[in-house]
Amino acid sequence: MSDQTPVIELQDLKVKRGIQKLEIYSMKIYPGVCYHIFGPNGSGKSLLMDVLAHRQSVDTGNILYENKSLKKREYSQAFVRKQIAYFQQRPTGWICGTVLSYLEKTLKERKISAGIAYQQAMAKLEEFDLKEFAKVKRSQLSPGVFHKVELIRCLLQNGDLLILDEPYSIPDENFIKKFNSCLRNVIRNEKKAVVIASAQSLFRFR
């Protein structure tokens, strides 16, 4: 994919969920660029994130993924979901298992062998000072550690696009500093697109 080809493009889009409505004439997400969606609570940021992540159907308009049209069925939403690393404001996908098994599963879905998946998962936990939680079960994690593990999962997923909905609402400054360093590498060196939704300014991404 060329740097000039949008990863995702929204065209004449209208969507409604409950009392929230979105109308977007045109929006393009390019590789190697970080986008900040800023607005107050209830303004529709999470709804937009769900649309970009192909987790929310639209009422009218079209979505293009790498210049392929969803409206014309030139790609499947199920395929695109696997190409996108999505941190949801209220994650629901991880229910059971340990931190290590969860991260290993993420890596194995990329066709990485069990041995390498273990090494990479442990290395990432050590990088973020979370190695002690490797064998801790999901049900035993605090909200803060759970939040951090979900952000690490997004990094390991290695998607074409990272969508992060309120990633900075809980973690401590030390974690955020390391996470931002990884994000800069993803954007500048790996040429991934990153979209961050936040109710506050992005002073924490620097």
Describe this protein's structure.
With 206 residues, the protein is α/β, with parallel strands linked by helices. It is 34% helix and 23% strand. It contains six helices and eight strands, in the order E-E-E-H-E-E-H-E-H-H-H-E-H-E. The protein has helices spanning 45-52, 77-83, 99-108, 114-127, 143-157, 173-188; strands at 8-17, 20-29, 34-38, 60-65, 68-69, 84-87, 161-165, 193-198. The strands form two sheets. A four-stranded antiparallel sheet has the order 2-1-4-5, with helices on one face. Strands 3-8-7-6 form a four-stranded parallel sheet, with helices on both faces. Helix 3 (99-108) crosses helix 4. It is globular and about 50 Å long.
Brief account:
The chain is an alpha/beta fold.
List the helices and strands and how they pair.
Blueprint lengths: L7 E10 L2 E10 L4 E5 L6 H8 L7 E6 L2 E2 L7 H7 E4 L11 H10 L5 H14 L15 H15 L3 E5 L7 H16 L4 E6 L8
Parallel strand pairs: 3-8, 6-7, 7-8
Antiparallel strand pairs: 1-2, 1-4, 4-5
Supply the helix-strand structural class: alpha/beta
What's the SSE pattern? EEEHEEHEHHHEHE
Q: Could you give a short account of the major beta sheet?
A: 4 strands, antiparallel
Oligomeric state of shown chains? single chain
Q: Mean of residue pLDDT?
A: 90
Termini, distance in Å? 27 Å
Number of helices: 6
Can you list the strand order of the major beta sheet?
2-1-4-5
Helix content: 25-40%
Total strands: the figure is 8
Rg over C-alpha atoms, rounded to the nearest angstrom: 17 Å
Low-confidence stretches: none
- How large a portion of the residues is in β-strands, by DSSP E? 15-25%
Shape: globular
